[in-house]
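Summary for the lay section of the report: proteins are chains of building blocks that fold into shapes. Here we show the chain for Aspartate aminotransferase YhdR and then a coded description of the shape we predicted for it.
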Amino acid sequence: MYSAEVLDEICSLIREAEAEHGREIFLVSDEPYRKLLYDGLEYPHIFHHHQRSIVATSHSKDLALPGERIGYIAAHPDYEDKSELADGLVFCNRTLGFVNAPALMQHIVRALQSVSVDIDEYQRKRDFLYDSLTQMGYNMVKPQGAFYMFPASPTPDDVEFVAALQEHKVLVVPGRGFGLPGYFRISYCLDDHTLEGALPGFEAAIEAYR
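The coded shape description reads as follows.
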């Protein structure tokens, strides 16, 4: 997760570029995992750092509604042309053919803004999988939020290693699809039995590359 200090530096660079080029530059923050933070971390809201900022979020993660794609887009309330910006966003939504949630669901979600899934449960799964995999020799950054891990592949060819894991009945995704060649992605929003059952496959696959 980006700290408030990192966001300050990013937004300072954006303002310098705005002055240099004589135009507005918007910072768009994609935030479906904003509430899924671990270890007592608090999210530094982007609106505190840059006036020309837009938040896009979805409740498919924090309310565990996969596939529903119910969320919202919000413009900085102090941006002087926010009405024009909002109109443009609504126009894009309509012309691109996205389907809005039914009115009843929109009212329900509005009342659930302070609610999320059990974060402690996700953190427990993260700790279990991180401890298990690092003990096997996998190298990765410990996630600060969401429910994914990106371990380094023991071979530069992440697609090859993902195929090796599949041979041991472990399903993961190559990192190159996310701009991270040489890594692979694990999702751990699964039941404990599935995570525990994957450990022998993870160990057998990395042992073959030692």
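Put simply, here is one thing we learned. The chain has a mean pLDDT of 93.
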